[in-house]
Design goal:
Blueprint lengths: L2 H16 L2 E11 L5 E10 L4 E7 L4 H13 L4 E5 L1
Parallel strand pairs: 3-4
Antiparallel strand pairs: 1-2, 2-3
């Protein structure tokens, strides 16, 4: 895990304490047909009923961009990307 991911984790912990965020999961895998997977850093379950999938990225590589598009095509989600 990166420093950026650790800082975001701390923000989520504060949101849980405040009651804004019910809970969150770390390192949630999304599997691709035929093998392979993409692991999102956080799956967040907010008190307002929303579910957010967040990835922390220092650099958006070509591999990341491809897998992001694939995940968003195969699953009914939109990835939230947190950058430096």
């Amino acid at each position: 895990p990166s420093l950026l991911e650790a800082r975001y984790y701390d923000r989520l912990c504060l949101a849980v304490k405040s009651g804004e965020l019910l809970f969150f999961l770390r390192q949630v895998p999304f599997h691709f047909p035929g093998g392979g997977k993409y692991v999102v850093d956080f799956q967040e379950f907010w008190a307002d009923g929303s579910v957010v999938h967040t990835d922390t990225k220092g650099v958006e590589t070509a591999d990341f961009k491809f897998k992001k598009k694939l995940v968003e095509t195969l699953y009914p989600i939109k990835l939230n990307i947190v950058k430096k």
